[in-house]
Amino acid sequence: MPSVITANRLTDGIVVYLASDGEWTEQIAEARLADTDEEIKALEAEAEKAVQERLVISVYPMPIALNDGAVDPLSVRERIRAAHRTTLTKDWYDVPL
Amino acid sequence: MYRYDEFDHAFVRERVAEFKDQVERRLSGALTEEEFRPLRLRNGLYLQLHAYMLRIAIPYGVLSPRQLRQLAMIGRRFDRGYGHFTTRQNLQFNWVKLVDIPDVLAALAEVGMHCIQTSGNCVRNTTSDPFAAAANDELEDPRPWCEMLRQWSMLHPEFNWLPRKFKIAVSGAAEDRAATAFHDIGLRIVRGPDGENGFRVLVGGGMGRTPYVGQEIRPFLKKEHLLSYVESILRVYNLLGRRDNIYKARIKILVNQLGIDTFREAVEADWEATHKSAVDLPEDEQRRILSYFAPPDLPPQPARDEKVGARRETDPAFANWYKHNVLAHRVPGYSSVVISLKEPGRTPGDASSDAMDLVADLAERFSQDELRVSYTQNLILPHVAIADIPALYDALAGADLATGNNELLGDMICCPGLDYCNLANARSIPIAKEIAKRFEDPARQEVIGQLRLNMSGCINACGHHHSGNIGILGVDKKGTELYQITLGGNPKDDASVGSIIGPGFRAEAVPDVIDTIVNTYLENRDEGESFLDTWRRVGAPPFKEALYGAR
After folding, report:
1. Mutual orientation of helices B6-28 and B33-42 as an angle, nearest 10°?
2. Which of A57, A77, A84 faces B33 most closely, judged by CB atoms?
3. Which domains, and CATH codes, for chain B?
4. pLDDT digits (tens, 9 = 90+) for B65-92
């Protein structure tokens, strides 16, 4: 199952993802995908460097699914984090965001 | 209310400077996150789902208009223009930046507020009756005793690293409006054998994954011994409470493992050995603190006001609001007004900065500069002349703050849940919104009558689901949010923990489930029975049948 690396930015706590260009992005769509355990470990090592550099905290890898190329965070929790907002929508049952 | 003296001001300012330095050292790399985390938590700063969350202490739910205005300013300048009032009478900001925290704390210090001990394994904000010094069933104002406990517990050297957090509630009225039975220590002011007031002391109550109703450790404690006795309880807990398992570390577990009698013996033995005069507050200091809480000068007025009566006759919305949100006051011609933060469609307990500014203005105009926060997540103007009620109502209605649902089904307690909280397993806010929509019709709520519906998004029970007449607990079952229903909880006198009624329900079913439970109550209730009365009389079978009969 593909994964991405997520964290919170140190200065403001906002949810971020490790992007393809090595930067941290708020957009999950720009997150770099890791398909194998080795790739996940490599991304984690990169993220650990960002922790040392005080860019991010609370880092962890997060499994996702690709639906027609779009990143689906799978869990309700991660969908809410990825949306950067709460879910007071009228059709909230299926967690569309 | 209590006003900071020079010592208090200097102490809080020093603390702001200290945390400012700690934030700077974190940002510069001098502190790692592991080193910084316990420091930020001691200052009420959490890392939540979306961002940092700052929890601000509102001691025993008492606020001045100036303080509320400052909170409004902070919400506007440093957050997203709103804050969330919690079940511990505190306020949380959900989107503050770490880099702004020193400025936020400095702004709080300007108005005598802080975030110290709003997190961590220490004595937290003491909570109390929001109608203190106003309710007509009050024996004695609990606030001075809360203030004494606050000052005593603040940075208490012996009790800053307890096995787990510690919550105290004090109530001085006939009716318990502070859920004292669900606190680590619950204090009820009662009349003693010689006619003097003192405390009935409960211990070991609590919510969380192992809910307990507090047990009586002492039927009567002389008031002057409050601090020494509470200190002995804390000492026994601090020495004997478990530190090896976070889930068994609260005092309720210790009390129930030892049994209340053994626990009492240990506390009494410690108390007897205590040099009480060194711990209890000297009489002049007691008097000094009591003097801050002198009731406002309210000249009695006619209990009935013709204009108010006429408005109630002609304006049904006003009449409905008046019936539920305007409560009896101890002084004729006055009332306490509940400003509901439970308008259908909004997050229970949230208030915008604009709303905070307005309520601060109204407290100055109509309520002797006094404001309260209730643990049921509403705001209260404690001393309003009845003649002023229509003008107050119009001002509130203009800002959508005149929902007349105090203590009705729509007055739900609701934790932030998975929409904000790192600990949550399921959402609670959207469920509250859907239930509010289902029961939006005031006439229906009127028929149902008083009903406490409480909801938590995880087993930690910040939303007090255990004490709801109807409780909803959100759990995660294999990636799906599921909602477990408990019935029969009661936060007041004769407190009880709700019983799980059966298997949980998916989110979309919850409004129907609540509807079914309410209809079952209405079908079974005898004349004048509350939900709790009916539940206690008929028990679970009719509710189970209605909910699961067809399965």
Report:
1. 160
2. A57
3. 6-110 (3.90.480.20), 142-291 (3.30.413.10), 306-397 (3.90.480.20), 413-548 (3.30.413.10)
4. 999 999 999 999 999 999 999 999 999 9
